[in-house]
Design a protein that fits this description.
With 280 residues, the chain is α+β, with helices and mostly antiparallel strands. Helix content is 16%, strand content 35%. The chain has 2 domains: 15-146, Alpha-Beta Plaits, CATH 3.30.70; 150-264, Alpha-Beta Plaits. It has helices spanning 59-70, 113-123, 139-146, 166-169, 230-235, 245-249; strands spanning 15-25, 78-82, 91-106, 128-135, 150-163, 175-181, 194-207, 215-224, 241-242, 253-264. It is elongated. It binds zinc ion. Zinc ion (ZN) binds at residues 37, 39-40, 44-45, 47-48, 52.
Length: 280
């Protein structure tokens, strides 16, 4: 691979470019953006074994690794702007999550986006997939970051003993408003607030039921409002989320696996963008 660093006296001016699209994340070990080590904030320490980050890859880095040489841009000059984000261990399926990718100094700004998508989808097969890449303007960064989608989730839930899920069936397809205090697990970096978010149980499947129909494992399909803490909607987070799946079943439950099955478009029809040229 040729050096992506600008040559001295390069004849071409470098241009800032933006493109947007959607990503599907097919694995449970991939953060959306660079996951800097909280201990050293990227400088390198014992906890991160000198790497400065806690995972080797991220959606951002998998794209950048191919995009930066593709557009002949300096290796580190990129930003990733997602329409929200899922946890590292959550897959992002369906039609994927919208994002804008920003490259600061592209010396080949006309390189093909279609070709980039093909490269990424080939090299990252089974982990990451890019859909619908198109050029956009800087203004899309703020727009995409402010998008609020309801989401359809698939969950694998474990109760601490075999239970009857009848109390959940009674609530199927009903919209319930939860009160959620900021979860314990993020309270150290976010203000402790209480918010209200709705969820709807849309399907229940009991896995490996015993003769009485009880089981400690079941899968759920849940639709929820933008910004719902979905793992806490299951566990109850020691009473910080009310009600919860655990409260309805009167048994402690945890969400063992979580997938975003799709983003649900709410309200206004999706605007069409994409005619924009690379912008300076
Ligand atoms: Zn570190």
């Amino acid at each position: 691979m040729s050096s992506p660093e600008p040559e001295k006296g390069a004849p071409r001016a470098a241009t800032r470019i933006f493109f947007e699209g959607r990503y599907r994340k097919l694995v449970r070990d991939l953060p959306q953006t660079i996951f800097h080590c909280p201990e050293c904030r990227g400088r390198g320490c014992a906890r991160c074994e000198g790497f400065g980050k806690l995972t080797k890859d991220s959606v951002q880095e998998l794209i950048a690794r191919l995009a930066m040489p593709h557009f002949r841009a300096p290796r580190h000059g990129h930003k990733f702007h997602g329409a929200g984000r899922e946890d590292v261990d959550v897959r992002m399926l369906g039609r994927g999550r919208p994002f804008v990718f920003e490259i600061e100094k592209a010396r080949e700004p006309e390189a093909s986006l279609e070709e980039l998508a093909r490269l990424v989808n080939e090299r990252c097969a089974g982990r990451l997939e890019l859909l619908d890449l198109r050029w956009c303007q800087r203004a899309r960064v703020a727009e995409v970051k402010e998008e609020q989608h309801a989401k359809d989730y698939g969950l694998l839930v474990r109760a601490d003993h075999p239970i009857d899920v009848a109390p959940l069936r009674e609530r199927l397809l009903q919209r319930v408003v939860l009160k959620q205090r900021t979860p314990e697990r993020v309270a150290h970096r976010r203000a402790d607030l209480e918010r209200e978010r709705w969820i709807e149980l849309r399907a229940i499947e009991v896995l490996e039921p015993d003769a009485s129909g009880r089981s400690s494992r079941f899968s759920l399909a849940i639709r929820s409002e933008h910004g719902t803490y979905i793992k806490e909607a299951v566990s109850g987070d020691a009473g910080r989320t009310q009600p919860s799946v655990s409260a309805w079943l009167e048994a402690p439950c945890v969400c063992e696996e979580l997938d975003v099955l799709d983003l649900v478009e709410v309200g206004s029809p999706r605007k069409e963008f994409g005619a924009g040229l690379p912008s300076a």
